[in-house]
C-alpha cells in the first residue's frame, strides 16, 4: 500500500486534538461506551448528534451510506446503484442527512432524491464462488434539491487537496497507528435475516498491514483493510458507501469485507475505498472550503458539557 515506507512528522494541531480525545475518553467514558444491549453495527456504538455531519444514508432501491462532498453532491459506492446487475433509476434513490436516528421527527432532518448519478467508467462487478468483488467501486450522485448547510449537515472536509497530499496523510496515519472509524446504517445482526439499523452506528478500527490485505492488483493504493479491536466488531452490507475516518478526518468509505485464510483459519478484515485516487476524477479538491469540527474536539466539548462538575 502507498502509505508504507515513509515516516511523517506529526502536526502540532493533531497532537493537541488527540490529547483532548484521550482526556475525554479517560475522564468521561460513558460518552462513547458501546451499548451492549441494543442493536449495533456489530461491535460498535451509536453516533451522537452532529458527530458526522457529512454522513448520509441512501434508501429506496438499496440501503447504503454516503458522504456529502458539496451541498449538491454525494459520493458513495457504485454497487449501491445496481440491483440484480441492473442500474436503478436515480429518482428512486432517497438521500437523508442531518439525523443519527432515521425515526426522529425533527426539522434538522434533510431529505431529497437524486437527480442523476455518475458511476466510475472502470467500475466492474465480478461474481466469484462465494462472493462478489468490485473494481473502481465509486460513484457520485447529484441531488435533485441541494442540502442547506446547518449544524448537523455539512460537506466533508478532506485533510489534503489532492492525491499526493492524501498519500502523505496516509503515511502519517499508518506511522502513528491512528484510530479509524467506520460508520453506517447497515445491518445490526450477524445472521442471515438481516435487519438494518435506524441509528447511525460507529465501530473503531485500525489499519491492517498490506501483507495481510489481499487487494486486487488494480486496486492497490485505492483500497485498504482494517480490523476492529472489539470482538466481532465489523461493518455489514448496508454500511457500504458510508464515511470512513482516520485520525479525525474523512479519507474514504466503507466497501465490504475481505476473507483470508491464515494458518488454516478464516480471518476477516473490513475493506475501505480511499477518496485520494478519485479526487481529480470526481473533482473532489474543493471539499476543504467548509469548516468541519474535528471529532476529538467534538467529544471534548461534550465532555465539558456533561462531565464537568
From TrEMBL:
A GO molecular-function descriptor: serine-type endopeptidase activity
Keyword Kinase on entry: no
Domain Peptidase S1: 41-283
GO biological process: proteolysis
Family matches, as PROSITE patterns: TRYPSIN_DOM
Signal peptide: 1-34
Pfam families linked: Trypsin
Keyword Signal: yes
Domain of life: Eukaryota
SMART domains from the UniProt entry: Tryp_SPc
Keywords assigned: Disulfide bond, Signal
Entry similarity comment: Belongs to the peptidase S1 family. CLIP subfamily.
PANTHER family named among the record's database cross-references: TRYPTASE-RELATED
Protein name: Peptidase S1 domain-containing protein
Source organism of this protein record: Cimex lectularius
Amino acid at each position: 500500500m502507498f502509505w508504507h515506507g515513509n515516516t511523517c512528522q506529526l502536526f502540532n494541531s493533531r497532537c493537541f486534538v488527540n490529547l483532548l480525545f484521550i482526556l475525554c475518553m479517560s475522564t468521561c467514558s460513558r460518552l462513547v461506551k458501546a451499548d451492549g444491549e441494543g442493536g449495533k453495527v456489530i461491535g460498535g456504538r451509536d453516533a451522537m448528534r452532529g458527530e458526522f455531519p457529512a454522513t448520509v444514508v441512501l434508501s429506496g432501491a438499496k440501503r447504503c451510506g454516503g458522504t456529502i462532498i458539496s451541498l449538491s453532491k454525494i459520493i458513495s459506492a457504485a454497487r449501491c446503484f445496481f440491483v440484480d446487475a441492473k442500474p436503478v433509476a436515480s429518482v428512486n434513490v432517497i438521500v437523508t442527512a442531518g439525523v443519527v436516528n432515521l425515526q426522529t421527527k425533527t426539522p434538522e432532518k434533510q431529505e431529497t432524491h437524486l437527480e442523476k448519478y455518475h458511476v466510475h467508467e472502470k467500475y466492474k462487478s465480478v461474481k466469484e464462488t462465494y462472493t462478489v468483488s468490485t473494481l473502481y467501486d465509486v460513484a457520485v450522485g447529484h441531488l435533485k434539491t441541494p442540502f442547506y448547510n446547518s449544524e448537523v449537515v455539512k460537506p466533508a472536509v478532506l485533510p489534503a487537496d489532492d492525491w499526493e497530499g492524501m498519500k502523505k496523510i496516509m503515511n502519517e496515519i499508518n506511522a502513528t497507528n491512528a484510530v479509524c472509524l467506520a460508520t453506517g446504517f447497515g445491518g445490526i445482526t450477524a445472521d442471515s435475516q438481516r435487519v438494518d439499523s435506524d441509528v447511525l452506528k460507529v465501530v473503531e478500527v485500525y489499519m491492517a498491514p498490506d501483507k495481510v490485505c489481499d487487494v486486487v492488483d488494480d486496486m492497490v493504493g485505492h483500497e485498504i483493510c482494517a480490523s476492529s479491536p472489539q470482538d466481532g466488531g465489523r461493518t455489514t452490507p448496508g454500511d457500504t458507501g458510508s464515511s470512513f475516518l482516520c485520525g479525525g478526518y474523512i479519507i474514504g468509505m466503507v466497501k465490504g469485507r475481505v476473507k483470508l485464510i491464515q494458518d488454516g483459519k478464516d480471518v476477516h478484515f473490513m475493506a475501505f475505498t480511499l477518496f485520494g485516487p478519485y479526487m481529480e476524477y470526481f473533482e473532489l479538491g474543493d471539499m476543504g472550503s467548509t469548516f468541519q469540527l474535528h471529532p476529538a474536539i467534538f467529544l471534548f466539548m461534550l465532555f465539558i458539557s456533561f462531565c464537568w462538575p
